[in-house]
Amino acid sequence: MEESIELRVEDGIALVTLNRPKAYNAFDLPMVQLLADKLVSVALDPGVLGVVISGEGKAFSAGGDLKWINDYGENHGAAFHELAARYHQAILEIRRMPKPVVAAINGPAAGGGFSIALACDFRIMEASATLRQAYTSNGLSIDGGGTFALPRLVGLARAMEIAAFDQPISAETALSWGLVTEVVEDGEGMKRAIQLVEDMKKRSLSSFAASKRLITDSFDTKFETQLEKERELLSWCADLPNGREGIAAFLEKRKPVFGSHA
């Protein structure tokens, strides 16, 4: 029996596939539990230098499985409370992972699928794919960090528009609004996402890890505290092999050769 989350590692890149294609990769509790577990494992694996998340079949993910919610019982609130606990663990693993995480959006990303794509560091979207927050059209509110990411990516007014009217967002619009990093032809999303991580592997991953942590924390930090965090991580980076190599290369007027340090 195939797992609802498939994980394979190729050349230091963890390929995480949402694998419930008949349900458009919608999340039920076993699936989000497995997703969180897989993300923990790749975060801790020193051999993994980057992660690509994609969906099997026609969709990236349709979000929370409302059939599973309905089958849970009369208390739908309790079902969402349990589902969101593990789903949010997966979101936190993406945001706290000191490695680049890329969403390869191969088809519709709605609800929780939309939020998990927004949680990734980069989003490669195929031309015919669509984004949709979907929650409010189902009488629900946005989760998965979507309310955190949206106003920071598109601004408050646009975030409110997305929340209020829930119109499907085309790849072209998503790119113009800053919701995605790049749009590619259909069928090319995974290839481009892997290429992006390959490009990152040539750079200082320790520098990326520190910068990702600082940027993620900046929204909840006072300016003076943020400055101190920046000083701390700048000093940390400078004493790492990549930091020493980068400084030496600059002084020697050559291109740096960074090691694989996540």
SSE blueprint:
Blueprint: E1 5-10, E2 13-18, H1 29-44, E3 50-55, H2 66-72, H3 76-96, E4 101-105, E5 109-110, H4 112-119, E6 122-126, E7 130-132, H5 146-154, H6 156-165, E8 169-170, H7 171-177, E9 182-184, H8 189-201, H9 205-218, H10 223-238, H11 241-251
Parallel strand pairs: 2-3, 3-4, 4-6, 5-7, 6-9
Antiparallel strand pairs: 1-2, 7-8
Top keywords for this entry?
about 260 residues, 2-enoyl-CoA Hydratase, Chain A, domain 1, 2 domains, six-stranded mixed β-sheet, three-stranded mixed β-sheet
Distance between the termini: 33 Å
Tell me the Rg in angstroms: 19 Å
- Biggest sheet, strands in spatial order? 1-2-3-4-6-9
SSE run: EEHEHHEEHEEHHEHEHHHH
Give the quaternary arrangement of the chains: single chain
Shape: globular
How would you classify the helix and strand content by structural class? Answer: alpha/beta
Q: What does the largest sheet look like?
A: 6 strands, mixed
Residue-averaged pLDDT: 94
Strand content: 5-15%
| Portion of residues within helices | 40-55%
- Tell me which CATH architecture of the largest domain applies here: Alpha-Beta Complex
CATH class of the largest domain: Alpha Beta
The CATH topology of the largest domain, please? 2-enoyl-CoA Hydratase, Chain A, domain 1
Give me the number of helical elements. 11
- What's the number of structural domains? 2
Uncertain residue segments: none
User: What's the β-strand tally?
Assistant: 9
According to CATH, the homologous superfamily of the largest domain is 2-enoyl-CoA Hydratase, Chain A, domain 1
